[in-house]
Amino acid sequence: MIVPAFSQGLYGRLRQLAAADWQRYVAHPFVQQLASGTLAENAFRRYLTQDYLFLIHFARSYALLVSKLRTLPEMRAAAASMNAILNELPLHVGYCAQWGLANRRWPPNLKPPKPSTIPAMSWILATRVTRWICWSP
C-alpha cells in the first residue's frame, strides 16, 4: 500500500501553516467518530445531504471561475473541474439512495442547507464573484 507523504510538498506546507486549524479539524468529534466507525447514522445521513448541496455550490463556483479566466486552456481546465463535480453528483445521489435518502433519478427529499453549511457555500461563491482568482490547472 502506498502511503502519501502528507508532510511534504505544497500540501505539507499549507498544512503546517494552518497547523492549529488542522488540529481542530482532525480532533472534531464528527471526524473522530467517522474515523472510528462510531458516528451515529442520523449524523452521517445529515452529512450526506449537506455534502450534496455543497457539491452543487462548488460546481457553480467553477462556472464563475471559468467566466473570470483569461485563456482558453485555463477555461477548459476549470470547466473540466466543474464537469467532474457534476458527473460525481449522480454517484452521490446513488450513494444517498443506498442510505434511504433519495431515489436514483433525483433527491426529492433533500432539505435546504443547514445553517452550518450555508457559510461555506456562500464563501465559495462570494470569493469567486468578488476576488481575483489564483488558478493553477
Automatic annotation (TrEMBL):
Note the superkingdom of the native organism.
Answer: Bacteria
| Xref: Pfam families | TENA_THI-4
Q: Which is one GO molecular function term here?
A: thiaminase activity
Residue span(s) of domain Thiaminase-2/PQQC? 22-107
Q: Per the record's keyword annotation, is Transferase included, yes or no? A: no
The coiled-coil regions, if any, are none
Keywords attached to this entry: Hydrolase
Q: Which gene encodes it?
A: tenA
State the InterPro entries in the record: Haem_Oase-like_multi-hlx, Thiaminase-2/PQQC, Thiamine_Salvage_TenA
Annotated GO CC locations:
cytosol
E.C. no: 3.5.99.2
Which PANTHER family does this one have? BIFUNCTIONAL TH2 PROTEIN, SI:CH1073-67J19.1-RELATED
Name recorded for this polypeptide: Thiaminase II
